[in-house]
User: Which sequence fits this backbone?
C-alpha cells in the first residue's frame, strides 16, 4: 500500500460526519438526469470532499461545513415524489465521507421504490474496501460505482459517465461488493 493510499484511507475513516439522521448536501435533489448513470435518475448532491482534484468542476462542494443538512427521512420522502425514475445516483462532493447517511437512503429507495443505486467516488474501490466500516457497507449497497479522482492530464469526455481515463465504471454484486464487470 502506498503512502498516498494510507492518507486517503485515513481521510475516509476520519471525515467529519453530519448530525445523526441527517445528510449534508450541496444542492437540491435532481430528477430525470441522464448523464450520471443508466436510465432516468434522481441525483443526490453531497457536500464535503477531501480529494481536491485539480480541475474539479465543483470546488464549492469541498467544504465540510458548507451546503446544508437535511434529514435522510426527508430526502426519502422527496425522492418518493419523483415519478418514472430508474434509480438514484450519489454525486459530490464525496458521498463516501458520509456513507452511513447515503446507505440509509440507498437501502430505502431500493426497498420502497424498487430503484437501482449508483454512486460516484473520488476514492478507488480498493481504497474504500481497505477503509472498511460504513464506507464499505455503503459500497455493498450499490449496483454500480464510478471510482477514482478526476485527473486533469487524463481528461477524456468521450467516456461514459466519467471525466478521466483512470476512472472506472464498476458494476457490483449487491450485498457483497464484488466487481461483476467494469468499463
Ligand atoms: S472527488 Fe469529485 S468533487 Fe472531489 S475534488 Fe475530485 S472531482 Fe471534485
Assistant:
Amino acid at each position: 500500500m502506498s503512502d498516498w493510499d494510507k492518507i486517503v484511507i485515513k481521510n475516509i475513516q476520519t471525515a467529519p460526519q453530519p448530525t445523526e439522521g441527517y445528510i449534508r448536501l450541496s444542492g437540491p435533489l435532481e430528477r430525470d438526469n441522464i448523464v450520471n448513470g443508466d436510465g432516468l435518475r434522481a441525483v443526490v448532491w453531497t457536500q464535503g470532499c477531501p480529494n481536491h482534484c485539480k480541475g474539479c468542476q465543483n470546488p464549492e462542494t469541498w467544504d465540510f461545513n458548507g451546503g446544508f443538512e437535511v434529514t435522510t427521512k426527508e430526502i426519502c420522502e422527496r425522492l418518493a415524489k419523483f415519478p418514472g425514475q430508474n434509480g438514484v445516483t450519489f454525486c459530490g462532493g464525496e458521498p463516501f465521507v458520509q456513507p452511513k447517511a447515503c446507505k440509509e437512503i440507498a437501502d430505502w429507495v431500493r426497498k420502497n421504490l424498487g430503484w437501482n443505486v449508483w454512486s460516484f467516488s473520488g476514492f478507488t474501490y480498493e481504497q474504500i474496501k481497505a477503509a472498511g466500516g460504513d464506507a464499505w457497507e455503503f459500497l455493498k449497497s450499490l449496483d454500480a460505482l464510478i471510482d477514482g479522482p478526476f485527473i486533469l492530464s487524463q481528461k477524456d469526455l468521450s467516456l461514459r459517465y466519467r471525466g478521466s481515463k483512470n476512472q472506472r465504471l464498476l458494476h457490483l454484486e449487491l450485498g457483497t461488493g464484488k466487481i461483476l464487470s467494469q468499463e
